[in-house]
Write a structure and sequence with these properties.
It is built from two helices and no strands. With 78 residues, it is mainly α. The protein has one domain. The protein is elongated and about 70 Å long.
Length: 78
Amino acid sequence: MAQLNLNVTPPFERDLRALMKARGFRQKSEAIRVAVHEAAQRFDSAEKIDFKAWIGIARSGAANPRPRFKDDDSLWER
């Protein structure tokens, strides 16, 4: 098994100890492995949203009948 070294903040250490106490873990490494594994499972099982259908959706609406500017370049003219 590969080794991973972590530098943790005091709040992380406090939360890790609370997790260890609540779940009955004896070693920090076991608690971290389980927490990361559970987070990865939740990520994999989460519903994925495909935003590809949104491409070009803004252009599908009605055009402004009275635009203030004739094109994008005129936005910067004085």
